[in-house]
Each structure stands twice: as structure tokens, then as C-alpha cells.
Specification:
single chain; 181 residues; mainly alpha; Growth Hormone, Chain: A; elongated
């Protein structure tokens, strides 16, 4: 593989991982309106949605810690290893949220477990952000670092737009009851 092709391949892979991570992060927010009654039953849709939004916000509190922990891990084990671990934590969290029992099944443990999982996802996202920026700038040619590093922001927004796009498509084909189940 030619050096410029290898660089482009590494930039693409790093950007794709970043996009997947942000997609997983934002899909929670996009679908909170559907799953919030399962974890925060109050018979008041506004309260349920606010509780889900509070959990979303709590995840952001873990980002600085995630940056510290995952950045140190990436410094010791390599950027790819750090990014891979970050994606695995985020994807595992999304899977666990999908499998979580609801409030009617396990009571208060449903929202508690949701908070714990989102805290781990916030840790993951914090680690992804700094490690991804470093990886993209290290992989780029010196004259193209700014351009390639900007892919981190492009893929951040792309992940959010894809999450919303998936929501719109599902809303077109599924009923509200099906989306909430």
C-alpha cells in the first residue's frame, strides 16, 4: 500500500470509529422519548423525558475522567488499542441498555443500571474524543494535519445526523407503540 493510501485508510478508519461512537451516544437522546416511560414511570411524559435527559447529562460528567483514563491507556498501549477499547465500551453499553429490564420488572434498579451504563458510556466518549483527535493528527502528513483532524468534528456531527436519520426512518415504518417496546 502506498504511504498516502495508508494514511487515507487510517484516517478513514479513525473517523469511522469516531462516527460510530457518537452515533451510539446520540441514539440514546433521539429515542429517549420512546424508552423513558420504561425506566422512569411517572405518568407525566415531561417528567419521564426530563429524567432521561438528566441521565444523558450525567454521562457528560464522565468525559473528563474518560479522557484521562483512556488517554493514559492509549499512550501506553497505542492509539488503535485505545480507540478499539472505547468503541467496545460504548457498543457494550448500547447493547446492555437494549437488554435492560424495565421499571415494572426490577423497580428502582432499572434507572440505577441505566445511569451506571451511561456513566461508562460517558467515560468511553471522553476517551474517544481526545484519543481520536491525537490519532488523526498523528496519522496525517504534517502539511495536512488540520484538514485530517477536522474529520473528528465532521464525524461527530455525522453520528448525530445518522442517529436522527435512523429515528426518522423508523418513525415512518413503525408505530409509536412498536418504537416504545
Amino acid at each position: 500500500m502506498q504511504p498516502s493510501r495508508k494514511i487515507a485508510s487510517n484516517i478513514f478508519k479513525g473517523s469511522l470509529g469516531n462516527m460510530i461512537e457518537w452515533y451510539d451516544w446520540y441514539v440514546y437522546a433521539a429515542f429517549a422519548v420512546y424508552f423513558s416511560p420504561s425506566f422512569f414511570p411517572s405518568h407525566d411524559p415531561t417528567s419521564e423525558l426530563l429524567d432521561a435527559a438528566a441521565v444523558f447529562a450525567l454521562g457528560f460528567l464522565m468525559r473528563p475522567i474518560g479522557s484521562l483514563v483512556m488517554g493514559r491507556y492509549a499512550d501506553r498501549h497505542g492509539r488503535r488499542a485505545g480507540l478499539t477499547l472505547s468503541i467496545l465500551i460504548m457498543a457494550s453499553g448500547s447493547l446492555l441498555i437494549a437488554l435492560l429490564p424495565n421499571y415494572q420488572t426490577v423497580g428502582i434498579w432499572a434507572p440505577v443500571l441505566l445511569v451506571v451504563i451511561r456513566l461508562f458510556q460517558g467515560l468511553s466518549l471522553g476517551g474517544e474524543y481526545g484519543t481520536s483527535a491525537t490519532y488523526l493528527s498523528e496519522m496525517a502528513e504534517p502539511s495536512r494535519r488540520g484538514f485530517y483532524s477536522s474529520f473528528q468534528y465532521v464525524t461527530l456531527v455525522s453520528g448525530q445526523l445518522i442517529a436522527l436519520g435512523v429515528q426518522i426512518i423508523l418513525q415512518m415504518y413503525l408505530t409509536e407503540t412498536e418504537l416504545s417496546s
